[in-house]
Every structure is written in C-alpha cells, then in structure tokens.
Design brief:
Number of domains: 5
Number of helices: 47
Strand content: 5-15%
Structural class: alpha/beta
Radius of gyration: 36 Å
Strand order of the largest sheet: 15-16-14-17-20-11-21
Number of strands: 27
Shape: globular
C-alpha cells in the first residue's frame, strides 16, 4: 500500500474532513497540507464504499488557476488508484475504477470556467447565445483599443463637449490611455452609481469620507506604524533617571496607546472631526519633541537617550508626512471632480460601445463572465435558477479563498443559496498569503466570510510539514505581531540540521559607497579572484551599485555553502530525515520583481553558478517580441526605416551595424538598398553582401504574401525563411525564447479566428502591448537540471525549496499611482496639475487608503517568501546602518529581532521558541579556484585530447579544429592606438633621413607609460566623463569611488594625483567655458570611413571615442582631448606632435558628422594646465592622411 494512503491524519485534518453539517472556512497556514485536505475532503464525498456517496456532478471545486485544477484532478485520480490497489474485493475495485475513469468529467475548474458552464447551461435566462466565444486577454484588449479609437474619433467629429474639454486640459493621448485603462465591465458599478452625480455631489462625498473615515484612520495608522512601535519601546518609564522624565514618558506612552474619539456621540460637523484629528497629530508631535523635554542627564543610560531621540525624530517625520498635514482644497476638488465626471461619462460611452460590439460578435471577455454570472444568480426573477443550482450541488469547495474579490464571493454565496453560511461551502485559504491585489483580490472579504460562519465552521491547519523548526521559529517570531489573530506554525518534524539555519547577510548600503573605495573593489571579483568592473548606471547611481555588490556577496556566500559540504538540507524518506550537503538545485532566489534579475544573473555567472530564470510576467518586454514586431512593421510598411533597421540587425537577418551604414551611405535608405540588392556597395564583405541579398529576398517574399495569408501562417513562413526560432535555441535561455515565439504565434492564430489575416490589427495590438507592457506570463518551459532558480515571490507561491535567498529587503517602494480611478465609493478620481492644487483632493484620499493596503500586502508578501524555505533561509540587503532600517520589511523584522546581532528585542508569547540567527557582515571569502560548474564542454581540453589521440594513431584531427591564422590584409576596423607603432617607425625613419636628434622626440613619446600611468589616465578620464561642470561634486570622493571600479586598482598616490589634476582643471577658463556650454557630449563614439575623401570606399574605417565635444555660447562646436602626461614649456610642442594625427582623425570624424569643421581643436595637457591648439592647412592635412595610409598599409602587410 502507498505511504500516502497510510499517512495518519492530524486532529486538525480530521476535524476538517468530518465537519459535514456546517459551512467551513479552513485557515491553512503555509506548508500545512491544504491540498491534501482538499483532495481527501473531495474524495470522502464520492467514496463508493459509503452507503450513500454523492454523485460526482454534485461536487464543485473552484481553484485559482487552470494548473491548480489539473493538479487537484490528478491528485484525486491518484488517490482513487491507490484505493483501487488496496480494495478488499473485486466489487470495491470496480467501483474505484469507475470513479477514476470518470474524473475527467469532475467539476473542478477556475471560477471563470465555472461561470462559463453556468452561463451556457442557462443561456436563455442570461440573454446569451449558448455558443458564445470567450475572448482571450489579447483579443479582448485589441477590440477595446479599436473601440476606444473609433468612439473618440466619432465624438471629436461630433464636437462632444466632454472629449474636447478633457483633451484641452489633459491632452488627447492621455485621455485615450485613461479611457483604455478604465473601460470595460468592471467600470460599470461606479458608472451606474455616479452617472447622474454633480460636481457638488462628488466634492461632498470626498469631504464626508475625509471626516468620517480618512481622518480617524490616519490617527489609527500612525499609532500602528513601525515608528510608533519603536517609540513605545524607547519610552519605557523604567529607563528614566528623573521624575520629570518619568512623568513625560508615562504621558507619551499613554498617548501612543489611545485613539481619541469625539467627546460626545452626537453627530458632529465633518470639519470639527478633521480638526480634532489634526489637533491630535499636533499634540503627539509636540510630545515627541526632545528639546525642552529632557536631556541625557535624565536617563540612566546614554544609549537609551540616543535611541529615544532617534525614535522621536522618526515619529515626527512620520507625522509630517500624514495626510492631515494638508487641508482640503475645495477649488482643486471641484476642478478634479469636473474632469472626473467628464471622464466617467466618456468611459461609460466607450464601455457601452464595447458591449455592443461584443454582443454583435457573440463574444464575452473574462470580466463579462463574472458580471453576467452574478447577474444571473442574483436577479430578482431568477429564484428558480438559484434553487436549482443550490439543490443540485452538495458541496462547493473553493481553494485559495484569500485571493477572491467581492464579486467572486458574491457569486459563491449566491451559488450556495441563502443558507450558504450554514451548509454547502468549504473554503480553504490563508489571509496571510493574499498577495494578488493587482488582480483585484481583497483578503478582507474572505475574513468577513469566515467571521460570518459559526465557530464550528472556523477551522485551522497550523501543523507545518514543509519547514524545519529553525525556519518556523523565525517566521513565528517576526509575524506574530504583524497580523491579527496570528496562529503560529507548528513544525511537524524535529530539527535535523545544524543551527543557525536562518542568516542575515548585510552588505554596505548605497550611502556607504564612495566613503571607502575598497568596498566595491573587494566585492567585485569573480570566482577566480579576478577584478570585475561593475556597471555604473547614471540613472540608478549608488543604489544600482549597492545592489550589484549585494548580488556578488550572495553569490560568494552560496559558493561557500556549496563547497563547505556541511549538511544543511534534508531529504525526507517517509518519516526519516537524512541531512546532506547543499546542491545547486536546492537553491531559489526570490525577487519582488524581475526588473533587477540581470544583476543576480551576472553575479551568479561571474562565480560559475548555473541558474535558470523561472516565471515572470514581462512577456511583451522580451527582445524576441521586439524583433518580431519590427519585422512585421517593416513587412507592412515600406517607409518604416526604424523597424526595418531593428529587424535587419536582429538575429532574423544578423546584419552588422557597419553594413547598415554602408547601405544607407550608398542608397540613402534601407528600403531602397533592399530594392537594389543587385547593386550593393563595394565596401561590403562577401558574407555581409550575401546576408543583404537574402534579407531582400525574404522581405519581398513576406510582402508579397502578407495580403494572402493568415497572420499565423505569415508568422510561420517568416520563421521558416529566417530560421529565427532555431537561432534563438542557441542563445542563453533559448528554449524559453523559442517558446515565447510559439506563444506569440498562438496569439496570432487566435486573432485570425475573429479577424482573419488582419496584419495591421496584429501590429496595432502588439505595439500597444509593447508600449504599455501589461502583465503577461512568459511561455512555460522546464528548468534545466541541477541549477539555481531565480523567480518572483508571486511565482514561488505554492512551491518550496530547501534553501531560499530573499535579497534586496530594503528595496524602495514603487511611486504612487497616477492613473485615474472610477471608485464606487468615492466616485471618479483624477489628478490635476500641481499649479491647480493646493491641498487634498479625492485622488489623495484614495491613494492614502491604497498605500495602507499596499503596506499590508507587502507584509503578506514577506510572509509568503519566508515560508517557502524548508531547511535554510538567507535574508539579504544592502543597508547603511542596521540599527536604523529605512523601509518596511527590515523595520518589521527589526521590531522583533535585532538586525545587528540577531537577538530578540522583546519576549515572545508563551509557547513560542526563540529563533537562532547568523548575522554576516564580512565579505564572504572563498578560495581562488574557479567553480567547476560550466554551461558547456571545455573546448581547449577537447582539442588537446583529440590531438593526443591523433598522435597515437587512434584517429585523425578533424578539419577545421586547428587554429585559423589571422589574415592581416583582411583587417577592416582600425583604432588610432593600433597605428601608434607604425607611426613611431615612420618618425624614426624621418629622424635618420633628416639627420635629426631623436632624443627630444623619444622623451616626448614617454607618454602615460607603466601600470600607474595607465591607471591615472583611465581614472582622470572617468572623472571628467561624469563630472557636472556647473555643480561639481567633491572631486576627491568621486575619484575614490571611481577608482574602486577600475579593473587595475590605482595606488592611493595615483588617486590623489588624479584629484589634484581635475581640481586644477576646474579652476581653468576652459572649465568655466564648459560650465556655460549649451551642450556637452563626452566619450563620443564614432566610425569614420577611410579614406574620408575617397570616391571608392576601401571597406576600412576608424573606430574611436572623442573625450569631449561641446557647443559654446556662440553655437559653434569645439573638440577637446585630455592627456595626463608630465610636460614642460620646453617639450610641450614635442608632446603635442605625438597626438597631432590622432586629433586630425577626430576632427575629420566631427566634420563628417556635423557637416562643418569644429571651431577649435585643442589638446588639454592637464599637468601644468597647458593647452595646444591645432589648425591644419590643406597641405598639412594631405600629408597627415598619407602618413596614416602608410601606417595602415604596414599593418595590412604585416606577417602572421
């Protein structure tokens, strides 16, 4: 018999299975076996060995996803098979076999599928054709876009006042995006509630809400905040050394415990209520002042005084950010209400047009299914239908009930009948794991439903089968005070691995970077100990650098754990735990968002750790989607040069950027170049020319077929002609990229069913999705072998991993919402321009309430993340000061457990166990041996082995495996540094020919030589590239910070010298000129065809970077090149002569780009603050060009 069959039930599980006479709300903690209970409860009703088993169609099970529905059906089928195997006789075995075979007909589905079946079964009563089509999200969105554009166009032509006014105030593009976001079935409750309202009605409702709900809530939220909690801990009266302080702390503690209420029960004017709340804030803020209240002498311990002072400061800052620190803006509210009502009417118009369009086509979208099912079950004349569905269903089971919304709960209640709270409902969920507010989930509705049931129906599962006690102890300690009615997790197995099994990994925060340049330098090394150059993003700045450092620390800590062979994870064999060392496949890195996944990917790759990126909802942000969109735009339009360039340089055709340049240089446009593919520029290499001809033939083929084929067939043809899907398979995460293409083809196939061959429609839909990037899951693929998995916390829901890494705990929250809202309670809510607003308006009230709800969900998200860990939990963050956490996740942990040393801050409730925490703040040290994980074969070893076998006569070396010698004459790309040696030889020859003393030239040629000379030049250039000449930051700190990012670490004296050179330059007239410049361009990359004056290109070109190009006040451009050579007045001309031809090339590149010569070309020798200008005559130019030609020729003729 299978072990699952013999698994004994816990008392809680038994209670959940036996509760037959009541409706049940089962609160199932993380890892507590809710799926097992759901399966057993379902099976217990249809068990054929019972006297009167239920019929399979009398049970309905609603799951959150299609995958969950399949899993539940499979689990029930497996349990049937187990029962069949253990049957006592043939009759019982036959009964279980019949049940197993009929499981495909079980009513186990998502709520949308459930509503679809309900509507098809009662189509006449619902006013529908039973053959209606359910639109997928992409098709529904395209229909909405088309409807919005059609209605806006029509209303504009008709001179609709609402549209004209909104367009004048908000801009037509913004109006279009607002209407597109709001239109649809979900907007109808608010539209019906506020359609006839006036501006005065809306403003009055906002004022009422502020007085009756927002103001009291603002005080409650303040007193429940982390800042208030910290202040309570800091103002214990026992800490006072004076009677004065004792009394003050006692008053403050009392104030922090109480929520003031109106003095009487009589109905008060709203303004009085708001005034009372504002006065309360002022009172609390005054109490939290330190100056004039106490000094350090009033405290027993100076550390307690400092903590109190810091806590008071944080509490006052929280008060200053309160909604009530601003007054209600009546004028701004009237303007916002007027715009909001106009927008509501416009959304109502578009929604009506959208409903008519769907009705004509006999189509429904997902939101329609819910709205119509609710209408069918609750309409006054449909009592017979309600009685029929309730009477035909013995039990309705709902999984993940915490992720439902009010409309879904209303449908569930209506389906169960009027006595839903007494019988027929079995809802399983855990409000602590509700993390889908972006899908409309409201955990409050599940809590309210649970509270409406009798105590006998409010059951719980708290015995945790997933995690070891070390993990559950930490979870209980952190979250017992974060949730109301928290039920602690009880581990089902003893601790089998060493503790601590929870670790804090704190890395230097963003404000710490630059104070010690070595911080980043130490972190930025790969598995072999080689320095890594961390990418510096001007946009993200220090925060990005801190995140990169944290990622490298995490990777190194994982390498430590993997190499230690310490037995920190457990394999379960029945009830027997077998500890073993960590493997890559045991590790999961859980992120709040995949937007920064690249940072962790780069760190793992640098340390030889194989990984797999799982899940994600950025389908329309993938490069392969961009490539396909560019291809179809170029196929559809022969004037879209940007799209064609994107397609040609993508793996679809793989043309080099230089090839695109030569094509445009010759034919003036890419489309013209493809049309004249038989007359390609001579500068193109043979392989590139073949690619161009192939691209031209492919594009012509697709353009010929675009009006004859369905979009999906055209898509398939494009893949066949380009081999794009095959190319993707060779890239990193190739199977997923190829799967994304297949998913996109399926979307095209779906569109073909409603609009056959509508290529413009497909392009419009895809363009909108790429622009707006709605959440859409990436194509599902299997993870590959023993690899680390990177995924979002949302994707990890329902999964478990031996070791969980939860990084970036101190991540800043997203900025507040800016889109309009149609709220049934508050009406239409829009933002207005800042100059029109002086205080609070409706949208501010909504945002405040949403911020509170978002904070609550963020706590639940942290709970979900922590409870994914079975054996080891690693929490990480970059943090400036662990004693002063800035953001909510770290503050929540710090309330109970010190971030500094991992000790408890206060006693735990009775029955709780104290967690053991390891705190790591030192750089993780690993040996220099490179990790052995690899993504492919070691080709060098493979070739060496083959040669060894060939030498022994055991085989022969395959053709092509020998090294391919370079052909110097094939060189096309040159940089000026490559010509330096050849030009020096020319100079020596000139010295000999002219009998000139070479000593001066040789001395001048001792340019920034040696390691420190190169480091000095690199550092100075890096500083000047980033320096703000108008508001220069401290040069010494900037130098120290950038020095840590250089591959070759400069010595301290070199960093000091660099700072001195830059500071001297900032005091120069040239720096003042740069500060006043109209435009400054630094590190300007260029490609210069060579020769620049030749009629027939030679396929050669210069590639380089210009240090500085700026447009002065006279609108003329000037070219600067910075050097750090040590020069004197005597050797200035000789030093400048070494760079003359380099500056000539830069000048020619500028002339080609701007169409005119620069007003000035200057070599800035920073040592000594000297400049040397260049101004060539035509003869000097020609002489310089001949010298460069000769140097090129010598390189091309060089032997191997």
């Amino acid at each position: 018999m299978n072990a699952a069959t013999e698994r004994p039930l816990t008392p809680q599980q038994r209670a959940a299975l036996d509760a037959r006479d009541v409706s049940v709300s089962l609160s199932a903690g993380a890892g507590c076996g809710k799926t097992f209970v759901l399966t057993e409860r379902f099976l217990s009703h249809v068990d054929p060995t019972q006297i009167e088993p239920a019929q399979l169609e009398e049970l309905v099970a609603i799951t959150f996803t299609d995958a969950a529905a399949r899993e539940m059906r499979d689990r029930v089928r497996r349990r049937c098979f187990e029962r069949l195997q253990s049957a006592k006789d043939e009759r019982e075995a036959a009964a279980w076999q019949r049940l197993m075979r009929s499981m495909d007909g079980a009513r186990i589905s998502t709520i949308h599928s459930f509503c679809t079946q309900l509507l098809r079964g009662h189509a006449v009563e619902a006013g529908l054709d039973p053959q209606f089509e359910v639109l997928d999200a992409a098709t529904a969105e395209l229909m909405k876009l088309e409807t919005v554009d059609d209605r806006l166009r029509s209303l504009l032509l008709d001179g609709n006042e609402d549209v004209l006014n909104l367009a004048a105030k908000r801009g037509l593009d913004r109006v279009r995006s607002d209407v597109t976001a709001l239109a649809g079935p979900l907007a109808m409750p608010a539209i019906e509630r506020w359609r006839e309202a006036t501006v005065a009605d809306v403003v009055a409702r906002w004022q009422q809400y502020l007085a009756e709900e927002a103001a009291p809530a603002a005080i409650s939220d303040l007193l429940a905040s982390d800042e208030a909690h910290r202040l309570r801990l800091a103002c214990q009266s026992s800490l006072a050394a004076s009677d004065k302080l004792y009394q003050h702390l006692d008053d403050l503690l009392r104030a922090l415990q109480l929520v003031p209420s109106p003095a009487s029960n009589e109905k008060q004017d709203g303004r009085v209520t708001v005034a009372v709340a504002q006065a309360t804030l002022d009172y609390l803020r005054d109490l939290a002042k330190v100056q004039g209240k106490c000094t350090a002498k009033d405290w027993h311990d100076a550390e307690d005084y400092n903590e109190y002072k810091n806590a008071c400061e944080a509490f006052r800052k929280r008060i200053d950010k309160s909604l009530l620190k601003k007054s209600f803006d009546a004028a701004g509210a009237r303007e916002a209400a007027g715009q909001g009502l106009a927008l509501l009417r416009l959304v109502g118009d578009v929604t009506g047009a959208l409903e008519r369009a769907k009705s004509r086509r006999n189509q429904l979208e997902f939101d329609d299914l819910l709205a119509r099912a609710h209408r069918l079950l609750t309409a006054p004349g449909n009592d017979a239908i309600r009685n029929e569905v309730a009477g035909s269903t013995q039990l309705l089971m709902v999984d993940e009930f915490q992720d439902t919304n009010p409309l879904q709960v209303a449908i569930i209640k209506a389906f169960c009948g009027d006595d839903w709270s007494e019988r027929g409902l079995f809802a399983v969920g855990d409000f602590k794991q509700s993390i889908y507010r972006f899908n409309g989930a409201e955990p409050r509705v599940s809590i309210d439903l649970r509270n409406a049931l009798s105590p006998a129906g409010r059951l719980s599962l708290t015995r945790n089968f997933r995690s070891q006690p070390a993990v559950t102890d930490f979870v209980n300690a952190v979250f017992h005070g974060a949730f109301e009615q928290y039920e602690p997790l009880v581990p089902a197995r003893p601790q089998a691995t060493p503790t601590p099994a929870v670790e804090f990994l704190w890395t230097p925060g963003e404000n710490s970077l630059g104070d010690d340049g070595q911080e980043i330098a130490d972190a930025a090394v790969d598995a072999a100990g080689a320095p890594l150059k961390l990418k510096r993003s001007r946009r993200a700045g220090a925060a990005r650098e801190a995140r990169e450092m944290e990622a490298h620390w995490i990777a190194r800590r994982l390498v430590q754990l993997l190499k230690s062979e310490e037995r920190i994870v457990v394999d379960m064999h029945g009830d027997r735990a077998e500890p073993r060392p960590l493997k890559l496949g045991d590790i999961a890195i859980l992120l709040r968002t995949l937007s920064d996944a690249q940072v962790y990917e780069e760190a793992l790759r640098a340390h030889g750790l194989s990984y797999y990126l799982a899940g994600g909802h950025a389908f329309y942000s993938q490069q392969e989607i961009y490539d396909v969109l560019n291809l179809f735009r170029a196929v559809s339009s022969e004037v879209d040069e940007i799209a064609l360039a994107g397609a040609l340089r993508s793996p679809l055709f793989s043309l080099a950027d230089e090839t695109l340049y030569w094509l445009v240089e010759r034919h003036k446009s890419l489309n013209a170049a493809l049309a004249a593919a038989h007359e390609l520029p001579a500068a193109l290499e043979v392989i590139e020319a073949a690619k161009v001809r192939r691209a031209a033939a492919t594009m012509q083929n697709l353009r010929d077929e675009k009006d004859r084929l369905l979009v999906a067939d055209l898509f398939t043809l494009a893949m066949e002609l380009t081999g794009y899907d095959a190319v993707l398979l060779t890239e990193f995460l190739g199977p997923r990229k190829a799967a994304n293409i297949e998913k996109l083809i399926e979307q095209a196939r779906t569109l073909d069913r409603s609009s056959p061959g509508d290529l413009p429609g497909f392009i419009t839909q895809l363009s909108e999705f790429v622009s707006r990037a709605p959440k859409e899951a990436l194509a599902a693929t299997q993870s590959e072998g023993d690899v680390i998995r990177i995924m979002t916390i949302h994707y990890s829901k329902g999964l478990e991993f031996p070791l969980v890494v939860l990084p970036d705990l101190d991540r800043q929250r997203h900025a507040g919402m800016t889109l309009p809202v149609l709220d049934e309670n508050l009406g239409p809510l829009v933002s207005i321009d800042a100059e029109e607003k002086e205080g609070i308006i409706g949208i501010d009230l909504y945002r405040h309430a949403e911020d509170v709800l978002e904070l609550e969900e963020r706590r639940r998200l942290l709970y979900v993340a922590c409870t994914r860990a079975a054996d080891y939990l690693l929490l990480s963050s970059s943090i400036d000061d662990p004693e002063k956490p800035k953001r909510d996740w770290l503050q929540l942990i710090d309330q109970q457990i010190s971030l500094v040393d991992g000790t408890l801050r206060q006693p735990l409730p009775e029955g709780y166990q104290s967690p053991h925490i390891r705190v790591t703040t030192e750089y993780p040290q690993i040996d220099d041996e490179k990790s052995k994980q690899s993504r492919g074969a070691d080709l060098e070893k493979l070739v060496a082995k083959t040669r060894e076998l060939a030498a022994k006569g055991a085989g022969e070396l395959p053709r092509g495996s020998e090294a391919i010698s370079a052909d110097p004459s094939a060189r096309r790309r040159f940089s000026f540094s490559q010509l330096t040696g050849a030009l020096a030889l020319q100079a020596e020859e000139d010295d000999a020919r002219l009998d000139r003393d070479p000593a001066e030239r040789v001395a001048a040629a001792s340019l920034e030589g040696g390691r420190e000379g190169r480091a000095l030049g690199s550092l100075v250039h890096a500083v000047l590239e980033r320096l703000d000449f108008q508001r220069p930051q401290p040069v010494d700190k900037l130098c120290a910070s950038l020095a840590s990012l250089l591959p070759d670490q400069p010595q301290e004296k070199t960093v000091a010298r660099a700072a001195k050179l830059v500071e001297q330059f900032l005091a120069s007239p040239r720096a003042s000129e740069l500060a006043a410049a109209n435009v400054i361009r630094r590190e300007v990359e260029f490609l210069l065809p060579w020769p620049p004056t030749g009629d027939q290109p030679t396929q050669r070109y210069f590639h380089g970077f210009i240090d500085c190009l700026y447009q002065g006040a006279d609108s003329r451009w000037r070219l600067l090149d910075f050097k750090t050579n040590r020069v004197t007045a005597e050797n200035l001309a000789a030093v400048a002569n070494q760079y003359e031809l380099q500056l000539l090339v830069y000048t020619l590149a500028v002339e080609q780009a701007l169409g005119e010569p620069p007003a000035e070309v200057a070599l800035l020798l920073l040592d000594g603050g000297r400049e040397h200008g260049f101004n060539w005559s035509e003869a000097e130019r020609l002489k310089g060009l001949r010298r460069i030609d000769a140097a090129m020729a010598s390189l091309l003729a060089a032997p191997n």
